[in-house]
Amino acid sequence: MSQRHPRTSAKPAARRKAPLWAKLVLTFGAVLMMIAGTSMVLLRSVVGTLEESVDLAGSDVLAGPSGQAAPDAKALRGAFDVLLLGIDTRPGQKADDARSDTIIIVHVSGTHREAYLMSVPRDVRVEIPGKGYRKVNGAFQAGLGPQGDWRGGLKTATQTVSKLTGITFEAAAVIDFGGFNKIIEALGSVRMCVEADTKSIHHFVVKGKPKYIGGIADATEADQYTDRTGNKRFVHRKGCRDMQAWEALDFARQRYLPDGSADYGRQRHQQQLIQAMVSKATSAGVLTDIGKVNDLIRAAGESMLLSLPQGMEVIDFFFALQDLAAVDLVSLKTNAGWYNGYKVGNESFEDLNDKSKLMFKAASLDKLGEFTALYPEFINRKAG
């Protein structure tokens, strides 16, 4: 298995930018099986690319917060849960200061006929092992150490989210924003729907063309930049269309939204992007193109750090997911999509409401089907 990059500060900061998330991790097994049905030559090529590209963390990352042993390869035969982290680093940022602003749990039912996507709000106040109480998006950063080791960050984040939700994880992964850009470029485009005209705080129209401007934190600073330069904020227009990588990712990053949904709206758009990527990745035009398939898997693998059950090889993990391509992914809205904030001193936090705690409990018991029947308002019907 490839160990080309240790996921430390040796990796240039410019290659990691901002967050986003991947059910693509769960799709590769299905993609491989589709390929196997058409061409063994193509399958061998893709497997080689996958094994060369994906970097593995040890299975100890999956050990429980109270010292529970890491799962073994048999764990994926029944219901299982995968923790997915999207990191947010910027050019020039210190290696030990990356935060996982996107935290998503994928629950696959024991029958492997249902899969659910749940977001953990980044401002939830949690106890991080050895670090005290912080926002949950700081758990990854707390485990990085001075060298910015992604493995340490993934382990601390996994233990923290497990303690918060009561869910034990059979696999976990972290991926960077640059990886998503490469994945969509390999796909060519993805189809996204914009509910209402949305101004970007990251891209501006400069000399008639959209251009990324770094260092802008919010809508107020974006408007101040426009006042200083005359360069207007790029607007994502209402409607459905095929988007290039930069546009799809920029839209999914926005949290200053017309409907005021803030981070919940961003989570919804991120989930829409994931589903759009999955749809394109499993389309016939991609699966029959050996060059495109290899580019896609290389782009994802080289931007990913993956932790698997003890004794499981990366290729076996993806093949174990082969049934999921035909599964409808159900996106769930933590706190039913409402911000549940409070303050400790001068710092703002968010809390999980009782029904959200019940949602995570249902996931740990493989009863999300029953939960969604009781609380249909938690189903995100705008994600796809």
UniProtKB/TrEMBL annotation:
Protein name: Putative transcriptional regulator YwtF
Keyword Chaperone: no
Cell envelope-related transcriptional attenuator domain sequence ranges: 99-282
Keywords: Membrane, Transmembrane, Transmembrane helix
Gene3D superfamilies in alphabetical order: LCP protein
Family label: Belongs to the LytR/CpsA/Psr (LCP) family.
Taxonomy, superkingdom: Bacteria
TM helices/strands, residue ranges: 20-43
Gene that produces this protein: ywtF
